[in-house]
Amino acid sequence: MELGRRRDLGSALGLAPAPAKPGQEPRPGAGAGAGAGAGAPGAVRARRFVLCLYLVGFLDLFGVSMVVPLLSLHVKSLGASPTVAGVVGSSYGILQLFSSAVVGHIWGHFHGGGDFAVSQTLAVPCFPQGCWSDVVGRRSSLLACILLSALGYLILGASTSVFLFALARVPVGIFKHTLSISRALLSDLVAEKERPLVIGRFNTASSVGFILGPMVGGYLTELDDGFYLTAFICFSVFILNAGLVWLFPWSEVKLNSTKHGLRLGKSHALLGKTDREVQEAATRRGTTVSGKPARLPWMEVVSTLRDMKSLIVSEMWDIFLVRLLMGVAVMLYYSNFVLALEERFGVRPKTTGYLISYSSALGALAGFTLGPILRLYKHNSHAVLLHSSVLTFTLLLLYSTAHTMGIVVFSSTLLSFSTAIGRTCITDLQLTVGGAQASGTLIGMGQSVTAVGRVIAPLLSGVAQEVSPCGPPSLGAALALVAIIVMSVSRPRCGGDGSDKLKSE
């Protein structure tokens, strides 16, 4: 029965239906002469649901990218010093790290520790006795995250003091997990082997939103009270997104669960039930799943930190250190990009928004160049990472000392390629060295290291800006140089015989 349901979903995604197993019980209405008529509506509903999720991802990053590049300008206009702005930015990163660490670990227990769940770091708000999205359902958790994030952007649009600015970042820092829950929904809707394709399309739709958002935000911010208008439009986009989620055909689409959790296909008690019925079943199951007692969030945090410590002190310490250093270096470059261009060259936010959108589009296209580059290097990820890091260091240094906008555009163009290639290669390298058995854990740990970088980078940026607008990218270049030294002295553990199948982040 599960196979029949997935066949409908596969048809909706353009996939060939799988043959039914011998002796399998036919689905109601799927008999002779009725199969086509019954399958078509299910396929249409599934396709409509998946396309709606793509739209959710697009609107989410479209709204966010309108506002985020302008935050440094706005907090400066409120009278905050760069250091205070850095502290506020770090508090947002801490909130994100906390919620991701707690829920990512809990998700691993409630969903059998599957690679997909861990690798996506499905950060969703949770109750002490389990994952919120399992207890109250995907619909309720997704709606709550969108609406509470919208509240944060509404407060941001009304912020006339540093206190209100910092207060506005709190609900966004805790509940801004729309993309993670959407990926979880997609994983429930499609067969396991089709997840990469569907998730890839979802990421592409989201990236398009991030390409368009800075252009719109840069244009709006030059109007009277432009930042407040931009924040209010962002709030409106989130409300529109919530309305879209509310109108989803939830009752018409059945959701899967994972291997050790609630499996609709093999549990006759849950077969054919909707998301609402599944969440009720999850609640009745109490605090244990797969025979393991659920633990409090604080215990999950401690367990996650212990896992992080064991990996960091392992033989892969240099890989995680390089990931942290390069991640912070790139974050420092972007931390005051809009503000620095205005102070150094008098560039208006509208023009800077166009430049950010241009760089984002190039970063998306950089993935197409990775295959030929890896073949040129004979799939030696270590060499590709080393050379891309050298290029990133050179470009950060060039941007820091640039005297014309032409050099800024040139460095931004090449940085889009070098950083995109570097992110993918560091992930491939850690998977190659760590082994396929722990791929989910390794990817999750890599994302945790990046989250730590999001906490550190705003603080370093604030201190560096006290010295000069060129301070953050200059400090980023110094960190990139340290990463290059670490890679140079470390013994390459991934050569030409490395993984031919690149695992993208």
Automatic annotation (TrEMBL):
<feature type="transmembrane region" description="Helical">
    <location>
        <begin position="141"/>
        <end position="167"/>
    </location>
</feature>
<feature type="region of interest" description="Disordered">
    <location>
        <begin position="1"/>
        <end position="35"/>
    </location>
</feature>
<keyword id="KW-0812">Transmembrane</keyword>
<dbReference type="GO" id="GO:0016020">
    <property type="term" value="C:membrane"/>
</dbReference>
<feature type="transmembrane region" description="Helical">
    <location>
        <begin position="49"/>
        <end position="71"/>
    </location>
</feature>
<dbReference type="Pfam" id="PF07690">
    <property type="entry name" value="MFS_1"/>
</dbReference>
<comment type="similarity">
    <text>Belongs to the major facilitator superfamily.</text>
</comment>
<keyword id="KW-1133">Transmembrane helix</keyword>
<feature type="transmembrane region" description="Helical">
    <location>
        <begin position="384"/>
        <end position="410"/>
    </location>
</feature>
<feature type="domain" description="Major facilitator superfamily (MFS) profile">
    <location>
        <begin position="49"/>
        <end position="495"/>
    </location>
</feature>
<keyword id="KW-0813">Transport</keyword>
<feature type="compositionally biased region" description="Low complexity">
    <location>
        <begin position="10"/>
        <end position="29"/>
    </location>
</feature>
<feature type="transmembrane region" description="Helical">
    <location>
        <begin position="202"/>
        <end position="221"/>
    </location>
</feature>
<dbReference type="InterPro" id="IPR036259">
    <property type="entry name" value="MFS_trans_sf"/>
</dbReference>
<dbReference type="InterPro" id="IPR011701">
    <property type="entry name" value="MFS"/>
</dbReference>
<feature type="transmembrane region" description="Helical">
    <location>
        <begin position="316"/>
        <end position="335"/>
    </location>
</feature>
<protein>
    <submittedName>
        <fullName>Major facilitator superfamily domain containing 9</fullName>
    </submittedName>
</protein>
<feature type="transmembrane region" description="Helical">
    <location>
        <begin position="355"/>
        <end position="377"/>
    </location>
</feature>
<keyword id="KW-0472">Membrane</keyword>
<dbReference type="InterPro" id="IPR020846">
    <property type="entry name" value="MFS_dom"/>
</dbReference>
<feature type="transmembrane region" description="Helical">
    <location>
        <begin position="227"/>
        <end position="248"/>
    </location>
</feature>
<dbReference type="GO" id="GO:0022857">
    <property type="term" value="F:transmembrane transporter activity"/>
</dbReference>
